[in-house]
Amino acid sequence: MKAFTSKTFWIETWGCQMNELDTQRMAGQLMQSGMLPTREVEDADLILLNSCSVRAKAENKVFSQLGRYRQLKRTNPDLLIGLCGCVAQQVGESALDRNPDLDFVLGPARVGELSEILERRRFGERVVATGFPEERHFDIDTISRAGAYKGMVTAIEGCDKNCTFCIVPFTRGPERCRPMEEIVAEVEHLVEYGFLEIELLGQTVNHWRQPEGRWDFADLLDRVARVPGVERLRFVTSYPRDFSPRMVEQFARHSNICPYLHLPVQSGSDRILKRMGRGYTVEAFLQLVDQLRQARPGIALSTDFIIGFPGETKEDFQATISLVEDVEFASIYAFKYSPRPGTAAVNLPNPVDDGIASQRLQQVLALQERIQRSLNEKLVGSEMEVLVTGWGEAAQLQSGRTACHRIVHFPAEPAARPLGSIAPVVIEKANPHSLLGRQPLLQ
Ligand code: SAH
Ligand code: F3S
After folding, report:
1. Angle, CA of 419, 421 and 426, to the nearest 5°
2. Which residue segment(s) compose the domain that 271 sits in?
3. 104 and 55 in one domain?
4. Segment 254-289, tens digit of pLDDT
5. What pairs with residue 44 in β-bridges?
6. Ligand 1 center from residue 171 Cα (angstroms)
7. Do 334 and 399 fall into the same domain?
8. Which of 115, 192, 301, 354 is most deeply packed, by most CB within 10 A?
9. Prediction pTM value
10. From atom 1 of ligand 2, which residue's Cα is the shortest distance away?
11. Is residue 200 part of a domain?
12. Are 279 and 242 in contact (CB under 8 A)?
């Protein structure tokens, strides 16, 4: 039995940082209305599934979770369940028809309307709030940042690119840039609150432009990096073609811009890049990598690959392998191509056999594992600054991220470090996916 009568909520989040921030926005609205988060889903009076639809697997997961949670309505008939995020936008009203236990559907562009939708549900309506209204609620005071160690700030919503494989432009709608004044005000607010790390968000964040103005993302970076108290500045995700020399320059100018960049390349073959509609060549990508490394020696680069895109031959895949060998990314996210409804790529000929795609995926991941191990081994003996984000699974181990975004575990000795603070750590051991270190002895 619950000791208090407050209503409680549970939010499950899949996918990218934009979804993470949307979860914080929904939690904020609920807490403002007097609801509290619960540690056990079984105790929840409201369950929100904040879904991702970038690959079919992610989409299937949310529906299987929905199937599981609807059972909870038997013991708590007042329980409400909402489908949120990109799958909500993608399937819309049909989700209510197919799932009689679903109470509402809330798309990513309508997150600010959650309280209103719950109110309407109380009067019996099963609301479908999808689409992309001109007027959108975005109230920075109702974002629950509790538990977060970095302050995420939206720079752009939506995406106007037409990558032939991608569903995001359909689920998150057209690109909309927030004005610089609004972004800077939110950053200042977060710094005042105590955040040392700021992350600017957008599907193509470096395509940001001041609405009806002349500033571009280089100006935004320059401005935000100058906000006193911003110790670490990150931004995600950058579109290679939109990365200008002025943006590269900011890495040389501002030491608080983290020496880390996520730059999704998708394939090492020009032929495949063309079929993907990416609008750049491998050579242009490599030139950008060189410029970045000149501006900030040692910068860690990460990327995304889609393996087994329709028409990918052995030679195309070999080109991807060569690119991974040449660039030596600090990390990669590689997934098999997944056909998404409504995207142009579903009509492309020559699908790659699933077994071959799996084999190629394993090959690229194994190569990357070797590269990562050797890159990480070079860091042994160095002292790195770690932003402490939590406790490891092993007793007395804390964990955090370096400025170059590597995960570090270290014993909480001589003292435990507060979450959200920056601790010096001497690296003693390297694994492909993490580093192990110790706090330096006090002088
Ligand atoms: N601009 C965003 C893109 C969001 S999708 C970003 O770069 O983060 C994130 C990644 O998912 C893409 O970079 C791509 O590698 C992968 N992805 C997107 N659609 C996919 C699909 N249909 N199949 C497999 N992977 C996909
Ligand atoms: Fe998707 Fe391409 Fe935009 S990957 S999010 S359509 S940049």
Report:
1. 105
2. 148-377
3. yes
4. 999 999 999 999 999 999 999 999 999 999 999 999
5. none
6. 13
7. no
8. 301
9. 0.95
10. 166
11. yes
12. no
